[in-house]
Design brief:
- The protein is an alpha+beta fold and about 375 residues long.
- It contains nine helices and 16 strands.
- The chain has two domains: about 150 residues, Protein Transport Mog1p, Chain A (3-Layer(aba) Sandwich), CATH 3.40.1000.10; about 200 residues, C8orf32 fold (Roll), CATH 3.10.620.
- The strands form four sheets. The protein has a seven-stranded antiparallel β-sheet, sandwiched between helices. The protein has a five-stranded antiparallel β-sheet with strand order 14-15-13-12-16. A two-stranded antiparallel sheet has the order 1-2.
- It is globular, with a radius of gyration of 21 Å.
- The two termini are about 20 Å apart.
Length: about 375
C-alpha cells in the first residue's frame, strides 16, 4: 500500500522501501506491482515488480527493446545481490525522454526471485533533472538490509573501495573507512542540498528538510560504523550508561571547528567531520545521533528554521546537573544536546529555547 503523498513507505507485499522527494505524487498503479509518480516539475518515477521468474538480464533487455532505448546498461553487485543501472534515452510522444533506471533482485518468494524495476525520467525539453532522478532512485532500499546502507546510485558511482585506517578527530583513536566514503558522502550531501533548495518557498519545506537529513543519515550510517564502535569502546568505563555515552559523544563533537561551506552545502559530510573534526550545528548533531544509534541508544535531531540551528536529541536519563531541557517528539520527551557550545547535555540557551520554533526529525 502506498500513500498519495510521497512520504517514506514500505511495500508490505515485497519489502522494498522508498523515500521520494516531497514533490512527487502517486498518479497511477495497481497498488501491488506497479506504481507511477509525477513531480510538479514534470519528472516521472515508475516502479514495477516482476514476479514472473525472469532473470535480471532478461528484464534489462526487455526494457531496452520495449522503449527502443539507446542508453547503455551496466550490471553491478549491490549488497550481495544483482543490480543494473540503465541510462534512459529514447523517443516517446514525439520528443526525447532522458533519465535513469535501476533494476534489483528482491528477496526470494518461494522458488521465485522477484525483480524491482524503477525508472526516473523527464522530457528533455523540461531541462536537466539528473540530480532529482538520482535522489529519487537512491531512496530505494530493495530489501531491509539496505535500509541503512548507501543507495544504489551512489554505490555504483562511488564504489566503496578498500578499507583504510584513519585517525579520528581529537586523537580519539583510529577507525576503518572505505577509500571513497568521504567523496561519496559529500556527493550525497551536495545532491540532496540541491533537492532541498527546491522547497525554499514551498509549504512542504519542513518535510523536505526532514528528508534531507534522512537521506544523509542513511548514506552515512554504514560509512561511520567502525568509527562509532571505536569511539564507544574508547569512552567505555565500568559505570557507562546511555547518558554517559551521550555526554561523552557530545563533548567530542563540541571540540569540532565550526565551519560552513558557502560555496556548497553548509553541511560537512559525516565521514569528513569524524576525521577532521569540523562542521556546523546540524552536521555535528547528526553525527552525534548516529554514534548513539549505532550503540542502540535512541537519538535523533531537532531543527529550527527560525533560529537557523540544530541540536541533538536522546532518550536518556536526566543530566546530573543543569536544567535538563527536554523536547517532546513522537510521544517521548528527549534530552536536548547543544553541539556547538561547550555546555552540559540537557542545557539550552535562553535565546533558542522556544519549543514551538523547533521540529524533530524521523531518521528512519
Amino acid at each position: 500500500m502506498f500513500f498519495l503523498q510521497a512520504s517514506p513507505v514500505v511495500s508490505s507485499e515485497w519489502g522494498f522501501f522508498l523515500d521520494l522527494p516531497e514533490e512527487y505524487e502517486l498518479i497511477d498503479g495497481d497498488g501491488r506491482n506497479t506504481f507511477s509518480f509525477q513531480s510538479n516539475a514534470g519528472a516521472f518515477f515508475d516502479v514495477k515488480v516482476d514476479d514472473s521468474g525472469v532473470l535480471l538480464e532478461t528484464l534489462a533487455e526487455t526494457v531496452r527493446k520495449q522503449l527502443k532505448n539507446e542508453g547503455e546498461v551496466e550490471f553491478f553487485d549491490y549488497r550481495g545481490g544483482k543490480a543494473f543501472i540503465i541510462e534512459l534515452n529514447f523517443v516517446s510522444g514525439g520528443g526525447w525522454i532522458t533519465g535513469y533506471g535501476l533494476g534489483f533482485e528482491l528477496e526470494n518468494k518461494g522458488d521465485v526471485v522477484p525483480l524491482l524495476l524503477a525508472l526516473a525520467y523527464n522530457r528533455a525539453e523540461t531541462g536537466d533533472m539528473t540530480f532529482l532522478h538520482a535522489s529519487a532512485l537512491d531512496s530505494i532500499a530493495p530489501f531491509y538490509g539496505a535500509r541503512l546502507y548507501p543507495g544504489a546510485m551512489t554505490d555504483y558511482s562511488f564504489p566503496r573501495g578498500e578499507p583504510k585506517l584513519l585517525l579520528l578527530a581529537g586523537g580519539e583513536g583510529a577507525a576503518f573507512f572505505r577509500e571513497n566514503d568521504a567523496a561519496a558522502a559529500q556527493y550525497v550531501v551536495d545532491r540532496e542540498d540541491l533537492v532541498l533548495s527546491r522547497y525554499a518557498s514551498s509549504p512542504l519545506w519542513k518535510e523536505a528538510w526532514q528528508r534531507f537529513y534522512r537521506m544523509v543519515y542513511r548514506d552515512s550510517f554504514d560509512r561511520i560504523k567502525d568509527a562509532a564502535f571505536i569511539l564507544e569502546r574508547m569512552w567505555n568505563v565500568p559505570t557507562l550508561n546511555n547518558r554517559d555515552l551521550a555526554d561523552k559523544a557530545l563533548r567530542w563533537v563540541q571540540t569540532f571547528t565550526y565551519e560552513r561551506d558557502i560555496e556548497r552545502s553548509d553541511f560537512v559530510n559525516l565521514v569528513t567531520a569524524a576525521i577532521e573534526g569540523r562542521g556546523d550545528c546540524d552536521c555535528r548533531a547528526l553525527l552525534w545521533a548516529v554514534i548513539l544509534r549505532q550503540a542502540d541508544v535512541p537519538a535523533t535531531i531537532m531543527v529550527s528554521r527560525d533560529y537557523s540551528h540544530a541540536m541533538g536529541l536522546a532518550d536518556v536519563a536526566d543530566a546530573e546537573s543543569g536544567d535538563n531541557a527536554r523536547f517532546a517528539f513522537n510521544g517521548k520527551k528527549w534530552l536536548v544536546a547543544e553541539t556547538t557550545a561547550k555546555i552540559d547535555i540537557g542545557l539550552i540557551g535562553e535565546s533558542v529555547k522556544d519549543p514551538r520554533r523547533w521540529f524533530g526529525v524521523d531518521l528512519e
